[in-house]
């Protein structure tokens, strides 16, 4: 059973609850929001920067991450305490995400392609919650989608001619959607097409009321790209809930010409975007080769989804 492979969830109730963090980062330049229900938690006043050792179930050569308390993503209705010794067991491996009591029903039992849409209005109208995967061409989006649903070729649908520029909906367990959006930054795409792409996906981000979170994929095997930073800042400024998914974290060979390891690129990327956010967005390190981060993404999606459904 898949469920037995998922990390254990420990939820504790504190006698004197500390202030909780915002569910999603609130940009410094707020514009219009359609996802306001997910932004309501009060800002944390926790000031400690004491690093928290993250419980390490990883391969011996995987680095141990340390994250300060103020860099954690704490879902709403979840409490953390500076002196909570079990906190490290409640943080998803290779991420900054604390588990909440909403992390249930995470496993994928069934996945099916539903439809390709060219406009937001044409997307499925059954009101099920959805998560959109987006990233630069070649970032590993199809590989990640296939890994999440444990199917080798499901995402091929999105690569078929005629569907690459569409919003592709995949229904999971008959209860939620994974949405594959067109890759951006494809150098050989004509300028006209790139502009259209911008308009069409931006409309989807702003107007799709069932969008729970965008999953922005970033290649962790290379230094931050300008277009990815621009994308992250646009999502932040438009208050579109965003999770950063760092891909290709198995590519560990340090390149001779000053290349950095994935965890260094992950840290650099966050430092570069922190100016656009009051608190850090949730992030997860992944690899479609080793399946690192797969269960963590599904648990994160489950807790966002279950919270969204309840509110
Ligand atoms: P897409 O264009 O974003 O859909 O990217 P693909 O999933 O087609 O992957 C692009 C290339 O990156 C392919 O050659 C994949 O085999 C490779 N790739 C994707 N994910 C990973 C990963 O996690 N690790 C490594 N080492 N390579 C990957």
From TrEMBL:
One of its GO terms (biological process) is cell division. Residues 127-307 form the EngB-type G domain. Keywords: Cell cycle, Cell division, GTP-binding, Magnesium, Metal-binding, Nucleotide-binding, Septation. CDD domains: YihA_EngB (cd01876). It comes from the Eukaryota. Its cofactor is Mg(2+). Belongs to the TRAFAC class TrmE-Era-EngA-EngB-Septin-like GTPase superfamily. EngB GTPase family. This is EngB-type G domain-containing protein. It comes from Gossypium darwinii (Darwin's cotton). The lineage of its organism: Eukaryota, Viridiplantae, Streptophyta, Embryophyta, Tracheophyta.
């Amino acid at each position: 059973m898949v469920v037995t492979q998922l990390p254990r969830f420990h939820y504790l109730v504190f006698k004197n609850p500390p202030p909780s963090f915002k569910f999603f980062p609130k940009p410094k330049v707020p514009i219009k929001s359609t996802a306001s229900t997910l932004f309501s938690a009060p800002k944390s006043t926790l000031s400690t920067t004491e690093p928290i050792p993250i419980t390490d179930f990883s391969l011996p050569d995987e680095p141990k991450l340390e994250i300060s308390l103020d860099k954690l993503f704490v879902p709403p209705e979840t409490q953390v305490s500076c002196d909570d010794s079990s906190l490290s067991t409640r943080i998803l491996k290779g991420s900054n995400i604390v588990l909440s009591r909403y992390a249930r029903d995470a496993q994928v039992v069934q996945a099916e392609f539903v439809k390709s849409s060219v406009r937001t209005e044409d997307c499925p109208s059954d009101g099920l919650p959805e998560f959109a995967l987006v990233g630069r061409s070649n970032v590993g989006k199809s590989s990640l989608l296939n890994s999440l649903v444990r199917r080798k070729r499901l995402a091929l649908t999105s690569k078929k001619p005629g569907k690459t520029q569409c919003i592709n909906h995949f229904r999971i367990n008959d209860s939620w959607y994974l949405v594959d959006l067109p890759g951006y930054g494809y150098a050989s795409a004509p300028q006209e097409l790139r502009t259209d792409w911008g308009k069409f996906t931006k409309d989807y981000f702003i107007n799709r009321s069932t969008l729970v979170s965008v999953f922005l994929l970033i290649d962790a095997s290379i230094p931050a790209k300008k277009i990815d930073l621009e994308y992250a800042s646009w999502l932040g400024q438009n208050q579109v809930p965003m999770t950063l998914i760092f891909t290709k974290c198995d590519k560990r060979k340090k390149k001779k010409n000053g290349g950095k390891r994935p965890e260094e690129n992950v840290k650099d990327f966050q430092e570069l975007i922190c100016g656009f956010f009051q608190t850090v967005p949730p992030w997860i390190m992944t690899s479609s080769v080793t399946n690192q981060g797969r269960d963590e993404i599904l648990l994160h999606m489950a807790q966002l989804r279950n919270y969204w459904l309840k509110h």
